[in-house]
Amino acid sequence: MAIEIKAPTFPESVADGTVATWHKQPGDAVKRDDLIVDIETDKVVLEVLAEADGVLGEIIKGEGETVLSAELLGTLNEGGAAAPQAAAAPAAAPAAAAAPAASAAADSEGDEQLLNPAARKLAEENGLNPADIKGTGKGGRITKEDVLNAIEAKKSAPAAAAAPAAKPAAAAASSVVLSEGDRVEKRVPMTRLRARIAERLVEAQSSMAMLTTYNEINMKPIMDLRKKYKDLFEKKHNGVRLGFMSFFVKAATEALKRYPAVNASIDGKDIVYHGYQDIGVAVSSDRGLVVPVLRNTEFMNLAQVEGTIAEYGRKARDGKLSMEEMTGGTFTISNGGVFGSLLSSPIVNPPQAAILGMHKIQDRPMAVDGQVVILPMMYLALSYDHRLIDGKEAVSFLVAIKELLEDPARMLLDI
Questions:
Q1: What is the pLDDT of residues 65-120, one digit of tens each?
Q2: What region holds the Lipoyl-binding domain (predicted)?
Q3: Which fold does the domain 203-413 belong to in CATH?
Q4: Is 278 a catalytic residue?
């Protein structure tokens, strides 16, 4: 019985996706819940799992092809047996004698089976004969990387022909030495996530009246509090570590309550005021910047904030963030300080109205009660949509965060 393998149902905010990687090839045995194929969207990578035991049949959508929500990707033959490999050895000499004939037949038909769709397409576009490409995949299959290596080898062939004929065999495998003045370029397609990030950043700057206000914060009270209680905090909350981000999330939550316009968004000609605080926390991953959302931070304590952020960080590194975890958000916090940024102007993530930028903590001489004191200072930046938020509100919001963090007892006492 053939089971249809379909793309996941995308949310309304996601128009389509791209087939990123087929983890199984036609003829491979598949167990229930095995990962078959990855679908990359402009937000996350979605995994398609096997619905039953069987053998992968036809691949309809190859790697790199665009797919729509719930579109057919391929078929799975339920309960079938995997295609025989070299294990099916001949039992007698006559069968062995027939091997050359089988090999000759495979030359005409096997190439198509040994190439996955993406590799076949790439080989055809570059005029390569699959028979000339050595496959490194399972069962000798030719992967996309094998085709790319063959393309590079083809480009370097003229230079190799001009070289002296007598060369040690090891020299053929050595890296190419570029002569002085050579300039190398590498062209790769932009990932869907990177393309979407670029699109949204341009959209934000062209559709908003965006500007940024700055302030600075003395981090010593928070650092002293963290130093005093971090061990007890970690022990009390089952290994959750106390960082700085939870303090900023709680301070921002309190400030958003006081200045609801910063927590609002524009929908056409309407202003939507959100009666909850869903704060997105920018996380860097191998695929690019992602912003998972902390839901209802007004009801979360510091340990819950830190634990959720740590979990999001692990999921981002593994590419396991779900669409629900990436959707929504009424405000965003971005911490460029972890990369050493001293000052920057973050870009608002529409349809949100504002974003808070944290930066590097750096010791600086400060005037305190007429005395010069060395204090750990951080610059804060609030970028906001001036169509919705007046300068007075933006500055007051940032000052509120500063006051709450420089005197953490204010958050406990709600003052």
A1: 888 888 889 988 887 665 555 444 444 444 444 444 444 444 444 454 466 666 77
A2: 2-77
A3: Chloramphenicol Acetyltransferase (3.30.559)
A4: no
